[in-house]
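INTERNAL AUDIT FORM
Audit reference: QA-55
Scope: verify that the stored structure record matches its stored sequence.
Auditor: D.O.
Record contents follow.
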Amino acid sequence: MTGPEMSDEYWEAYARVLTDVCTTGRRLSRGELEFLRAEGERAAEKGHGLRVLVRRHLAATPTVCPALPGVGADRVFAAVEQAIDAFAEGHERAQKLAVRQEEAARREFIDDLLYGRSDLGRLAERAERFGLLLSRAHAVAVAQGDLPVDDTHPATRQVESALVARFGDRRILLTTKDGRLICIAPGDQDDVLTFFAKQAYAATEAGRVAIGRAHPGAGGVVHSYEEALNALDLADRLELDEPVLRSADLLVYPVLTRDRQAMADLVRNTLGPLRTARGGAQPLVDTLTVYFDSGCVSAEAARRLNLSVRAMTYRLERIHKLTGADPADPVHRYTLQTAVIGARLLGWPEREV
């Protein structure tokens, strides 16, 4: 029996091999095995499914058996098993190679997309293969946990399954880079990134997710990705507690640090005198941080610092005396708060600025 999956010449060759092996009782030769493996590879490259081809081989066997009088069924089955096994090995080898090539192409595309180092026109053509239309605006969300993840990590598979179940075949790209989980979605589909953030937060065991703003074109993906990475970096340096950060809500910080030298001068001039305090500047900088985070309410700041209100008041007075700026005075408060933010961004007083 033949089928459209393989040529008549192949089935004739297969029958000759089977007949000779069953007649002599020998095993398939190395050349015969390689022939079957090679045919299996070619069948896979043409897109023919292995299950159908196995059935075709089994169906072809009875046409050989009547011509083999005196040959036991065990000998026939052993020969067929060996032949099909070699054919399937070649088919699977080609499939694995195709998967590796596809994974390599996908990884190369992801690297080029997130680093913007490829021709934009060519990048847009490749993007369609992976479900993205770069003519539209896109936004990028990046999830980072305590442990790195890759494309085969359980967290990646969990989030991918949730996204597919919820959004089906929307043009969404889920991938990993540098141990982080990344989702790229059309800029007008904020529900996708919000859902991704929720799933990634759970899958990475209370990791942190940052979402960049939507930007048009291939370059827009890079821009949004960098915004998300910068948001994660800011969250670490400022010790922000929010599990989900949006770069649009953090734009003030890049503005503040755009002139790094000016910010460094502000930190040194405003907070530098705190170095002379007993215990150094860090405890008083931490006091100001909590005080501002508490809405400048001394009682709440004292509670968060496990201090008495009297001790908190003493610290604020000490800061006023050393710096000449009163944290309770609205005129001085903005300067102090900006200097404190700058200190945290620049790593002062641990690092000189």
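Auditor finding: record pair retrieved intact. The radius of gyration is 33 Å.
Action required: none
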